[in-house]
Each structure stands twice: as structure tokens, then as C-alpha cells.
Amino acid sequence: MRLILGYFLLYFGAIFLFLGAFGLIRLPDLYTRMQASTKSTTLGAFASVLGVGILHPDWFVKCLVVALFILLTAPVGSSALMRAAYKTGVPLDERTTVDDAKEFFGEEEKGEAK
Amino acid sequence: MSYYLGSFLLIAIGLYTVIIKKNLIKIVIGLNFIASGVNLLIVSIGYVKNGTAPIFSKIGINPSAMVDPIPQALTLTAIVIDASELALAVAFVVLLYRHYGTLDIKKIRSLKW
Amino acid sequence: MNMSLELLLATPFIGGLLTYIGGKVHRWVRNLIAVLFSLATVGEMAMYYNTTFKGVVWGSLFGSNLVLQTNPITWLFLFIVTAISLLVIVFSIDDMKKEEDEIVLDSYYMQLLFVEGAMVGIVLAGDLITFFMFWEIMSWTSYFLIVHGGKKSMAAGYKYIIMSVIGAYAMFIAIAMLYAKTHSLVYSDVALALSQASPSFIIWTVVLLSVGFFVKAAVMPLHTWLPDAHSEAPSPVSPLLSGVLIKMGAYGLFIVFYGLLSVNLAKNIMPSVFSTPILLYIIQWLAALSIVLATFLAIMQEDAKRLLAYSSVSQIGYVVLGLATGTSLGVAGGLFHALNHAIFKGLLFLAVGAVIYRTGTRNMSELGGLVKKMPFTFTALLLGIIALAGVPPLNGFVSKWMIYEALIQKKEVFLLIMAFVGSTGAFLYVYRLIHSLFLGQLPEKYENVKDVPILMQIPIWILALSTIVYGIFPGLAMDVIVKGMKLFGFTPIAYNLFGFPEGTAMGSLTVINIAAVLMTAFVAVFIIFILFPKTRQVSQYDNYASGQELTPDFKYNYSFGFYMSFGRVIKPILSMSIERVYNYWIDAFKIFGDYYMRRIYTGNLETYNSYIVIVVTIAAAAVLLGGKLW
Amino acid sequence: MIRKIVYSIFLATIVLSLVMFFAAFPFGQNKMSVGEYYLNHGVAQTGASNIVTSVVVDYRGFDTLGEVSVLFGAAAGVAILFFVLGENRRKRREQVAPNFIVRVGSRIIFPFILLFGTYIFIHGHLTPGGGFQGGAIIASGFLLLYLAYPGTTVNRSRLSMVEGLAGITFIVLGLYGLLMPESSFLYNFLPKGELNALLSSGILPIIYIAIGFKVAAEFAGIIDDMMCEVICRGGEK
Amino acid sequence: MEKAGKLNRYIFTVVVLYVSWILLTATTHKDELIAGLIVSLLVAIGSFDYLSEHGLGHFSPKRVMYLIIYAPYYLWQILLANFDVAYRVLAPSMPIKPGIVKVKTGLKTDAGKLALANSITMTPGTLTMDVKDDTLLVHWIYVKDETVEGATKEIGTPFEKYLKEIFG
Amino acid sequence: MVNLANPILLIVIPLLFVFLIAFSSAFSKSAAKYLPIIAFGINVVVAMLLVPEVLKNGLVLSTTAGFKPPIAIDMIVDKLALFLVIIASVLGFVVSIYNVAYIDEEPEEKFYALFTLLITGIIWMIITGDLFNLFVAFEVTSIAAFGLVGFHRDKGSVEAGFKYLVMGAIGGSLLLVGIIMLYAATGTLNIIDVAQKSAELTFQQKFLAYALIFVGLGIEGALFPLNAWLPDAHPAAPSSVSSILSGIMTTAAIYAIIRITNIIFDYNQIYLFLMFFALLTLIFGEIAAYYQKDIKRMLAYSTIGQTGLFFFAFTIHSTNGLQGAFLQIINHSVSKSMLFLVVGAMIVQVGSRNIEDFVGLGRKMKVSSFFLAIGMFSLMGMPPFFGFWSKLKIIFAALQHSNALMIGSVVIILLMSVVEGAYFFKLLQMMFFGKAEQDREIKEASFGMLVPVVILGFILLFISFYPTPVLDFAHQAASDLMNKNYINLALKLGGL
Amino acid sequence: MSILDWIYLAIVSIGAVLAVVRMVKGPDVTNRVVGLDVFTTITVALFVFFAMIFDRYIYIDVALVYGLLAFIGVLVIARFIERGF
Ligand code: NA
Ligand code: NA
Predict the structure, then answer these.
(1) Cross-chain Cβ contact G56/B52 below 8 Å
(2) Predicted pLDDT at C281
(3) Which of C94, C460, E91, F24 has the maximal Cβ count within 10 Å?
(4) What is this structure's pTM?
């Protein structure tokens, strides 16, 4: 049972790790790529590490620490990166419908100038 | 052998960079390539087939199945030294940029002859 | 006895240091110490004069054993060194007063005494290392003396020190080669080693040593430093340089050829020409060329001191020519001429120095007519030029005569002719000198010129008297020379106080007899000169040139370009100036440095990094080629 | 272009010669001589379960002293190069990070990073971690803080004090070994303890803690200088 | 809500760190526990100011309870998000309609806003780029509603009700 | 009671002071100024205490961590190392005094810490008995030097510092590769152990490792063409630092080459290979020095030339040659350090590094100029100064082998000595006999800067007039190295 | 290592390779960094996996350190992308 659950988590993680990377290749612009990669790899790593924890119950606590760490840090990194990308003018895909960011950052620039 | 070759290539790429590239940052990166190559070489030297890390974290680990601990220790030292050099190099680059307004090494030659 | 030699060597050095310290007290203290210590050196020299001593080994204070030795020849040179140094120091006291900076003077006297000490060391040295050490000390201390003379002297001094260093290093190689062979550089050991060495080794060492001595002795083509240095140096230094310092080269040659290498040995290992070993024969030719070319150059000079400087090159040529004959007579003549030249050239430089002291110029075309204003200096200079020209009864005559005689006996006709040409030429330039300075018209601005102060007169007088004493009593010098040469394996030549008795190698030569004949002739000519009508005295403004009235600027210029027409004749010879060759090398060096060296230190980091890679590549290639890169 | 080709050939030569050399010492082959001694005696002699640590801090502790000095030198060098007078340094306080997520995220993670760094260097003798890794992690916490709050200032004289004191501790511990009968620098004079226990292997953990503090202080100093260079001077130019 | 007192926050930090230490070392060995306490006490000195504004207030039962409820919900959302991503990445037609929209939030504390931002990032189709005052900037992979109100309702509201309780 | 005659103290005590400087800077600004003086004062004492020990036993070996080499790192002080350690400590002491008056730029405490670290690293390089530890010491030295070269932070300093750093870093890495190759071949890092265990390797195998070590150390050791950083870095650094860089740092690197060559790679071909570099170094250093307008740059190139000279002496590979090399090292260390200190003081007064501006300085700064002259004379090898004896020994040793190569080398050496004379005399003549166009307000160097100069000057004069003990000691050290006594003694004492 | 482990390794490795592809392709710095970020996350997971395979508990610490440094690295890079030096 433990073995099955462990390997399930491990494989579940592996698949999403793969998917995240695949999205990186397939999706058209940076922003959508990041959408895919952030969610998938985080979950993938999270599940994968927990899987190890379950397969090796002595280590469960430590694995949990690693998994939580990943869960906590990944979104922060991604948002910082995407913001930076937008601010340096990394192009959006042509299918993009709305762009409130211009306004959002525009105000900010003004705010800074004060 | 392949690991050795990898480290040699890293060293060679690094050397190539410091000779051919004109950008200060690239030169610094080249230095880092060389250093990484050397570190990889050191670690590869110490590797013993099927050896494990030389840590007796449990009772009864057989020391004869372990890799050579010396290269690992040396790498540890070398890495810190490389990091130190890197930090200083970056500091120099920043200052050079301030003084010369360029990162092109060809233009930074007020000292010659 | 041991101690005294050390004392003799130490006295000038200690004196030099004390002078410097004394200068901080008062300039008279300094001057007194300088005079007293040089006097003491002369005294010590006199005390042990003409004694033979060998292999005095002095402690290890300087890192290696300081080996000292004496023999009559060394005493001859020590006499020259100490005596002239003393006179120069005395002369300096007034002459150098014009230097305002007392500090400069403190170091000036110190350096004078150091040069003296270094030369004493060279002469007393009993091994080549001691010799070389003092040789180098002499080079740089004398360099400092030369550059005391102002802006131009710096270039001169620079040339001097560089050439000296080159010469010294040539010597150095030879000394090191000898050391590798014998592990002892004491003269006797070296001589022993040379007697068993291969001919090529001997030739190499001897040639290299000679190069060092040639530079110092200013034998052509290594003379180029001398005219500048001797003329630009301060007045009192010139006699020391011309009179004494260049003799160290002659002394060195003597030591090498007759101390380390015996004539017989030389004859055995190399072919002979005119029964002279080829090496010596070549040296003879170099010396003869020096005599002739330097004479021509002296004739062409406008600067009094420069004229004397070239004269020195030519006169030292006689010394070397004599030394290189390899016969008793020639070598004795050479040694004697070394002494004589020291005396009369010292005298001439001091006399010209006296004129410069009063007039402030040494350009001959700006001078003239000083005979009435400086009669004493005139007399001294007259004696000097007579001695130089080799006219009896003054001292230049006997030594030159000995050299001629030696050449005649060896049947070296060409050399003899060249030596004669040199002597004839000497008449031309010495006449020029005395005429331009003392005869003719007196420029207006020198109306109030007086003779020099007594302290400057004394050294001049002493030298002037010496020209007469050694001229009339050559035996005084021959005493030492012959005694010394015996130690070096020469057959002694017979001599007496007045010259050479009949039936000796010299034939018969008694200066008094010759002088009597000449005096008679001179008196006859003088009487004729008095009796016959004289040329009319003309006011100095009362002359014209090409129908134009001369402006005061030009009015004294009749002595400018005195031998111009003669100059045109010899110009092609002079244009082969050795100096051009030197300049060519200097230019080449500059181009090398400026053009090629810049391409190495480019300031380009990539290039620098590539050097590293290239060196590693060379090593790697060597490994790949199986280590057979060399 | 020719230059590039020529140097490529040169480098290829170098690589080839290296390959030739190492052909005699194949990868994975046991080349140990002294290393074997460490593996066999390390635990008994030093009490550290991590033999790398026993090499780093004990057998070759002197290398580590050097390494610490190198880092110290680099920090001092950076401080020299980025030296800014006090007035300029104060300018930095006014800066705010515009990025909310980074700001708040970093703030929350910061204490855990400190804790984790400490964990790493305290367990240096038991795990692959050690003073350097721990110190570097702590310093990276400071880096994070700077990213969040560019106005952050560290008390530089306190940093100097920490790095100085840590260095002094290292050396004084080493010098104490000279007082032992073995009279040897860095002699491990404390009891070795039980294998894999936190309190084991004598002076090793103490040294590693000192190194941890030192490295943290030095990297923090370097980061502080670099940030100051970017921010304080950035305004000037 | 104003900041808690210094001591309060310090103790909170020590507790959090000490728990983390125990998790990290994953042992109850006496030495480790003592060392952990010392380390937590020391580290907290330098860092309590950064960790939290509420201090021990975070341990109020209500907050802990909501947290316990929120955690599985959050994980579930992540799971959904990933299937969503998988769908969009793998579907041949690539059903995307990206856009950047603004989302309003009623959360007041920084921690709360961060939690919201992170939650949005980790959940289906959205990624927070920045937060300012009460506005979140969100990249949406399939824009359903371009207005601020609509977007807020679609993206923010589901999380906000829990987070409001947890971070107040 | 602790035995103070312990080589390890030579490194550890100054290092302790490095950290003390950092520590004290938190409380007091001025303590940092004086701590280096104390540190190197102690070092001089320790070095002196080692003298009788070394003379008695041939060498003193000190292990670390309570284990014998090759298990642990050891420090070995033999006669030769002692020689250099004394020079380094004395220079450290003297130049630290100079710094008190000389350094007036912030951040001072960092300067003092790095300065102390620099000399510590140099001593470390000299006495370590372990190859990797040598690399570490090399890096300690380099990193301190990089920072110090950039100390002024102006355009030139930064450029020089960066170039030096890049070349030094490449050098360090190559050195490390060479060391690692030896480790791969022998499984040990102790120099003597490596020598023993690498005995069965072929020359060809060893050569590449050697070349890498040589290049690495050669960069620091200023060997042509690896020395391009030097003429930039030495002038850019504060003069007191240049004094150490020129005086002992390059020497320490060369010494490391000498020792490693002698112990591990003692092949005739290698000496030939090295001689080639030595002569090129000499030629390019001296000729380039001749053209310099910047006085410190001139001295820096002169350092290259001098390095070439003593390195050549080493490649003669005979006791006499080594003796000459060691004598020349002493001569160069003392003289060149003194020159840099004097020149530093002069630059402070003149406000320029251009040689033209030094005209007439001989009259204004009499004491400084006097010692400048003495130093230059000794470097030129003019008797009666010490340099004469070293040059003499080198030439004599070279001509002991009367083959064309040696004779040619001697000719080159002497020609380059002429060039050296040419530029030194040019400067001296200008200083002493030239006259400045306008009168300048120039005073003698301050007392604090004069004292170190005078100390070094008197050391130079003393060994000039009483060189016998130094000559003898150098001879013993040389014969120890040639006879490999070093190895035997270390084996006996170290229990390898 | 069982066959299951090998398959896991294969899947994850392909993911890592794809991430590297993005790193190499770019086309801009940000894209590369995203590739790097994915790559590091995968590596962290792999570290933990290897800890299990080789039965070395301590590798997990390595994973943690690696993850931490990668995180800070991304933040630093993001900052520099955004604001330059
Ligand atoms: Na460790
Ligand atoms: Na390096």
C-alpha cells in the first residue's frame, strides 16, 4: 500500500515535471509558458518529493520540509520573473486580449517620480 | 574518461573565452568556466567506481566502497576561493564600467608598454 | 708592512668620508681634510716606495679575500695617482669656489678622494677580483666627478659610464672564465693556469680583458667617450682623468700581457709579425691609429679642453704602442711615457683651467693675448706644450724617443711613420693652443684679467718643474721602471741619471747633450729674430675682411678655423667616424624597444591571456611530440 | 577569424595532452593513497562521521584557514573597491523595492534561511554541509533582504567584529593545540564523542561554527558593498 | 490591524523557528533539541522583525482552524490547475486567450495579500505579476472577464474568504 | 611552555593579527595602523629564534592537527626558506612602519588587513610543505594583492587590478590543474611524498604537470611572457605595496618554482626549458625598463629583469648558481623594496610619477636620494655594494660550464646589465645634477617614511661591507638544495 | 534500482532536457531564466530521488540548499533584468 502510494506520487510528480517542461516548449509566449511551468513543476516536484517521503517513512519529515519549501518559494520567484519580463518588454502573444499592466505600471512610474 | 573530457572542455572553453571575448562580463564568466572545469576535474579524480560519499552516517558503512575524500575537500576549498575571486572580479568590472563607460576590454587600455 | 698597504688603500676612502662630514662643519675644515688626506696618501706612498711585496691577503671584510701586492711598477703608477690627485685637490680649492652649493662641493671632494682610492686599489690589487672591484668603483666615482661640470657634462658622463660598464663587463667575462679554470684569481695562479691553457682560451680571455682596458685607455675605436668627458668635466678633474685615470687602462694592459701572460708564452701560442705576437701587433696598430687620427682631430678643435682631450687619446696611443712592442725598450718607453704624459697633460689641463677660471670660456676663438695678463700661466703652458711635442730637454722627449727606438729596432716602419706623423701633428695643435690663448690680440673684456691665485699656481708650478726634472733626469724614473720590469722577466736596459749610456740598446742618449745642441740652435734663431726687421704691430680694429669692416663680434675670429684647409684634406678620413657606428646601434636599440617591445606589452588583456595559453600550448605540444621539442 | 582558429587548435592541443596524461589514470579507478588512510582512520582519529569534514577541518584544516583568509581578502578587496563615504551610504535608506511579492515573500522566508544556514553549519561534521555552505546560505538570506528592502543597512563594524572574532576563534583554537603535548597547530584537544552525535568530533564543530559566522559576515559584507555600489552610486551618475 | 508588540513577535518567531528546526533535524535527540532552542532564540533576535506582524496572534484557534481547512482546498486547486495546464498544453488546438487583468482585494495585511497572490499563482490559469495597495496584477491564460470586478470575482474571491480569516 | 621556534607561528601570528585588525576596527580606527608592526615584529623574533634550530638540524618541520605528513599539512623551514622568511618578515615590519605615515586614504583598516594578509600569504607560500596548501597560499597572496593594487580606485588602479586578477585567476587554475595531475598520479599532496611516489612516472608524463605548475607560479613570479600584469600593477599599487610585491612576492613564487623543480622535477631538460624563460624575462624586463617615463613602471620592469637574472642563476643548476640566485634574491629584495619606499616618499613630495619631474631632487631630498642611489648601485651590481657579489657569483657559476649556451647567456646578462646601468644612471644623473626649471616646494620625506628607508639602507650597507655570513649561509642553503639534504632531513623528521 | 525507478528517471530527464532546450533557445534572457528555473526545480526533485536510490539521507539537505540558492538566484536575476546594474 505504502509502496503503491509512494510510487503513485512519484510518477504523478514525474508526469507534471515533464508537462511543465513540455509547456515551456509548446506554448507561444513567455507568459503562458510561465503559467504552465510554474504550476506544473511545482506540483511535480512537490509530489515527487513527498513520494520519496512516503517510500522512505524515516525521511518523511525532511521531505515534507523540502516540499513545503518548494511550494512557498516557487510562486514568489515566478511573479518576480514575470514582472521583470513585462517591464523589460518581453512581447506578449498576439492572442492576448487585455493588457491592464500598462496602466498599472504606468501609475507606478508616476508614483515613483513623486 | 568522459568526465575528464567534460572538465577539459570546460577549461578549454573558459580559456577560449578569456582570449577571444571582448566583453568584461564574458571574461569573468570565462574565468568561472575554467574554475568549474578544474573543480569537476578534481572531483572526477576522486571518484571510485561504485563509491559512495565518504560519510559514516550509519553504522557499518564499508570504507572501501567510498570515494576519495581528499578531492572533495579540495573542491570545497577551491570553490570558496573561486567565489572570492569572482566577487572581486565583479567588483572590478563594475568599477571599470564606471571609469571607462564601456565593457569592451579593447577600450580599456590606458596602461600599456 | 701589511698594515701599511691597507692603510695606503684606506686613507683616501676614509679621507673622503671625513671630508664629507667635515664639510658639514666648515668648508675650510673640509678643504683641509681633503688636502691632508691626499698628502698623507702621498706620504705613505713615499714611505714604501719601490719595495716589492706579494700576496698580502687582507681579511674578508668585503666578502672575499682582498689580495694586495706591490712591485716597482705599481709604485710608479701609485706615484702618478697619488701625486696628481694631491695637486688636483689643491688646485680645486680655489677653482671650485665658483660652485655656490657647498653640499655639491662636499661630495665633490669626497668623490675625488674616492677616485684616488679606487685607483690605488686597482694598482695595489693582487688578484683579478680585487682589481675588478676597484675598477668598477673607479668607474662610477669618476662618473660622478665628470657630471659635476654642468649640463653638457651629463651627456658626456652618461656616455662615459655606459662605455665603461660595457668595457668592464667584457673584462668580467674573462675574469669569470679564468675563475672557472683556476678557482683562484691571484695573478700568479692565473699566470700558471694560462701557461697550461689552450690557445683559444688564452686569446679569448686576453682579448676580453683588453677590451675593458681599451675603453678606459681610450684606444680607438673605443675612445669616443673621452673627448666629451675630459672636456666637459670640471677643470681640476680633467687632469685627473687624462693624466691618471686612462693610465689605469695602460696599467691593466701591462698586467695582462706581462703579468699574466708572458711574452714567450704569447709567442708560442700565436703567430708573430715582426717578432711581435699577432695580438700585440694588432694592438700596436690600434695604438698607432689612435695616435694619428686623434692628432688630426685635435688639430680641428675649437675648444681648448677638447683639443687637449684628443691629444690625450693620441698620447695614450704612444703609451700603448710602447707597451705592445713587447721589447724591454718599448715597454719601458711606454711606462715612462705614461708618467710623462701624466705630468705634462696634467700641467696643460691645469693651465687651461687657470685660463678658464679667469675668462670663463674655453673657446679658443674668443681668447687671445693673455700672455701679458697671465705670464705665469703662459710660461707653464709653454713648458707643457714643449714637453708634449717631445722637444728636449723636457720629459716628453725621452719616452717618445725610447718608443721610436724600439720600433726602429723591430723594423716596424709603418708604425714608426705613424708615430712620427703624430708628433708632427702635435706641433700643429700645441702651437694653435698657445697662440690662440696667449698670443695675438687681447679681447677687450679680458683687460682686467689677472693671474690665478697662489693655491692654483702651486700645483701648476710643481708639474712644470717636473717636466724639466724628468726631462733632464730620466734616470729617476728609469730606476723604478727597469727594476720593476726585471720582475716581469724583461732584460734590464742600462741607464743612468741623465739617460742611456753608450753601447746600450738605446745607442747613446744623454738629454743634456741633445739639449745643449738644441739650445744653441734656439739661441741662434732668437738672435736672428731680434736682429731682423719685425712685422708691424696693428691695432686690433685696424683690419678688414674682403673689403668689409669687421664688427667687434668677428674681430677676434682670425683663429677660428685655424687649420681649416688642412681639415678639408683629412675630412674623408674623419668621416669614417666610429661614432656613427655606435649611433647606429643605439638607434637600432631604440627602434627595437620602441617598435617591437610595444607590441608585447600592448595593454590588451586578451593578448596577455593568449601569452599564457601559448606557453601552455608549447609545453603540451612538447609532450605530444614526445618531449623532443628541444 | 584566423585568430580564433589558431587558438582553437592550441586549446585542442592542450586538451589532447591532458587526455594523454589522464589515460594513465582512468576515471573511476582507485587512486587513493592518503585518502585511504583517512577513510580507515578518520572516524577514530577525528570523530567526524563525514570524512570530508575531517579532511577539511582537521587533517587539512590549514587549507581551510587559508580559504577563510582568501574569502576575508576578497571581502576586504570588495570593500576597498566599493568604498563609499558615509554621506553617500545614507542615501540608500530612502530606497523601496517596488515589487510587493518579492518584498513580502523575502521577509517571511528570511528567518527560515537564517535557521537553515545555522542548521547546515552546526551539522557540518555529520552532513555534507559545513561552515562555508551554512555561512553562504545565511548571507544569501541577507541578499534576499536587500532585494526586498534595498534600503537595508547592515552595521558594518558589527560585521567586522564578527568576522574578526570568528577568525580569532579559529586561530586561538588552533594555537591551543600548541600547548598540548603533541604541540601541533589545530590539534583536536577536545573529546571526540559518539559517532553521529551533534556533540562529537572535538573542536571540529566549533571551528565550523566560527567559519559559518565568518563566511556569513564576509558574504554579507560583500553583498552590502555591491548593493551600495549599485544603489548609492547609481544615483550619482 | 496594528502590529503586535516586540516580545510577542519574538516569541512567535522563536516558536515557529523551533518547530522548523525539529522538522529539519527530524530527530528528538536531546542535544539537537537543546541546540535547536539556542539557535532559534538567537536567530529570532535578528529576524523576528521580518517574519510577522501579528506575532502570537497567528495562533488563535480560529485562524488555525481556517488554515487547516484552507490547506486541502488550496492543494485541490493546485491539482485542478495542473490538469488545466495539462489540457491547454496537450490539446492540439491550444485553447488559450491570454491577457493581463487587475484584481481587487479586501485583504489588509501584507502576509494576507502575499498568500492571495501565491494562491492565485498556483491555481488554474492565473499568475500574479505584482501587487499594489488593493490591486493585484494577474496574467490570465484564458480571459473570461476583462473588467476588474469580473476578474476579481472569477479569480480572487474564492480564496479571499479563507484568507481574510487567516490573515485578517 | 610553548616552543616559539615553530614555523607555523610565522603564518598564524600575522594571520591572527589580520583578524585582530578586522575586530579592532569596530572600536578604534587607529589600532589598525600599528597592529601590522607588532605582527611582523613578532614574526622577526620567531624567525630569529628559528635560526639556531635550522642551523643545528638543517631544517625545522612543523605538522598540523597532530598528524605527521603526508597525513596532515606540514610547514618546513630549511635554510633557504628561513632566509626568505627573514626577508619577508623584516620587509613586513619595516614597510608597516612606513605605512603609518604613508597611507592616508580610506578605508584604512581594510588596507592594513590586506597588507598583513599579503605578507602572510607570501610567507605561507615559502614554508608550506604541501602542494595544495601551496595553491591556497598562492591564492591568499593573490587575493590580497588584487585588492591592494586596486586600493586607489582610480582609473589606472582598477584597470591594473582587473588585469592582474584575470591573469592571476587563470594562473591559479592552471597551477591547481598541475597539482591535481600530480595528485592523480600519486594519491598524495605532500611535496616530498609526491616526489617519492612519482619517481616511476616518465619525464613526458610529468612534464605537462610541471608546465602547468610553472605557468601558474610563473604568472605571479613575473616570468616572460606571463608577466604582463606586473608593469601595470606595481605602479598602480600604493608604493608600500609595490615594495612588497616587487621585493618578495615575485620572489616567493619563483622560490616555489625552484623548490618544486628541484624536489619533484629534477631533470636537465627542465632546467634548459627554464633557462630560456629566464633569459627572455631578463631581456624584455631590462629593455622595457629603459623606455619608461613613469618611475614606478621603470622599477617594475626592472623587477622583471632582476627576476630573470636570479631565475637564470637557478637554471644553471649548480651549487654556485643557486648560491648566486639566493644572493641576488636578497639583493633585489632589500634594494628594490627600499627603492619603492623612497620613490613613494618622493612621489608624495613631487606629486607625479614622471621621471622628468624628479629633476634636481637629489638636492632637495638628500637622505632619500642617497639611499635611492645606493639601492640602484646595488641593483646594477656595482662594487662595493652587495649586488656586486651576487652578480659575480652568478657569472662565475655560469662560466663554470664553458659551453656556448652559458657563454651566450653571460653575454646577454652583461649586456642587459649595461641597459640597466643606462636607465639607472639616467635617473640618478638627472636627480643629482639636473636643475629644475622652476623652484619647487619640496621637503625631505617625513620622519616616519624615512626611518624604514634608513633601516633597509643600513641593512644593505651592512651586508655590502660584511657579506661573509650571508655568502656562507647562501652557500650552505644552496648545497643543501643541490644535495637534496632537504628531502632526507624532512623524511627523517617528518616520518613520511 | 528497479525498473520503476528507471522509468521515473527517464520521464524526469526528458523534462530536464526540454528545460535545457528552452535555456539554449531563449530567445531572450527571461526565457532562458524560466528554462533554468524549471531545470533547477526538476533537479531538486532528482536530488531527493537519488537520496532514496543511494540511501543517503544527507542528499536531501543538498537538495534543500540547491533549491534555496536557485530561488534566490531567480530573484536576483529578475531584479537585474528589470533594473540593470
Ligand atoms: Na561538512
Ligand atoms: Na582560481
Answers:
(1) yes
(2) 83
(3) C460
(4) 0.89
Contact call for A and C: 3+ CB–CB distances under 8 Å: no
From the CB coordinates, do chains E and B have 3 or more pairs under 8 Å? no
- Cis check: omega of the bond before E98, within 30 degrees of 0: no
Q: Is F26 on the interface with D (CB under 8 A)?
A: yes
**pLDDT tens for residues D114-127?**
998 998 888 887 77
Assign F135 a pLDDT band (cuts: 50, 70, 90): very high
Nearest-Cα distance to chain F for D64, in Å, is 9
Q: Which of G17, G30, G60 sits opposite A81 (nearest CB)?
A: G30
Q: Any idea which ligand is nearest the CA of F138?
A: 2
DSSP letters spanning chain A: -HHHHHHHHHHHHHHHHHHHHHHHHHSSSHHHHHHHHHHHHHHHHHHHHHHHHHHSGGGHHHHHHHHHHHHHHHHHHHHHHHHHHHHTTPPPPTT---BTHHHHHHHHHHHHH-
CB of A82 within 8 Å of a chain E CB? The answer is yes
Amino acid at position D45, single letter: Q
Contact F371, F345 (CB under 8 A): no
Name residues whose C-beta falls within 8 Å of residue F276's C-beta, 6 or more positions apart in sequence: none
Q: Where are the domains of chain G?
A: 3-82
Q: Tell me, yes or no, whether chains F and A touch by having 3 or more C-beta pairs under 8 A.
A: no
B69-93: burial string, b at 16+ Cβ within 10 Å, e else: bbbbbbbbbbbbbbbbbbbbbbbbb
SS3 per-residue string spanning F78-134:
EHHHHHHHHHHHHHHHHHHHHHHHHCCCCCHHHHHHHHHHHHHHHHHHHHECEHHHH
CA distances to C151, D80, D134, F9, F91 from F22, in Å: 53, 13, 21, 20, 22
| Distance (Å) from CA D128 to ligand 1 centroid | 4
Please give the residue that has the higher pLDDT: either F204 or F100: F100
Nearest-by-Cβ selection for B52 from G54, G57, G85: G54
**Contact flag B31-F170 (C-beta cutoff 8 Å):** yes
Q: At what angle do helices C475-487 and C72-95 cross, to 10 degrees?
A: 130
Q: For residue B76, what is the domain's CATH number?
A: 1.10.287.3510
Which tens digits make up the pLDDT trace of C277-317? 778 888 888 888 888 888 888 877 778 888 888 888 888 88
**How far is residue C131's CA from residue C178's CA, in Å, rounded to a whole number?**
14
CB pairs under 8 A between B and F: 91
pLDDT digits (tens, 9 = 90+) for C67-107: 888 888 888 888 888 888 888 888 888 777 777 677 777 88
- ipTM confidence: 0.89
Examine residue A19 and state whether it is found in any structural domain, yes or no: yes
Judging contacts by C-beta atoms under 8 Å, the chain D residues touching residue E38 are: none
In angstroms, the CA A45 to CA F443 distance is 73
Query: Strand, helix or coil at C544?
Result: strand
Please indicate, yes or no, if residue B82 is contained in any of the structural domains: yes
Whether residue B22 lies inside any domain: the answer is: yes
For F28, the 3-state DSSP assignment is coil
Is A15 within the bounds of a domain? yes
The pLDDT value recorded for residue B38 is: 94
What are C475-512's pLDDT values in tens digits?
788 888 888 888 887 877 877 777 776 656 555 666 66
CATH number of G3-82: 1.10.287
Q: pLDDT grade, residue C569 (50/70/90)?
A: low
Find the domain containing B105 and state its range: 2-50+64-111
Q: How many domains does chain B have?
A: 1
Tell whether A99 is covered by a domain.
yes
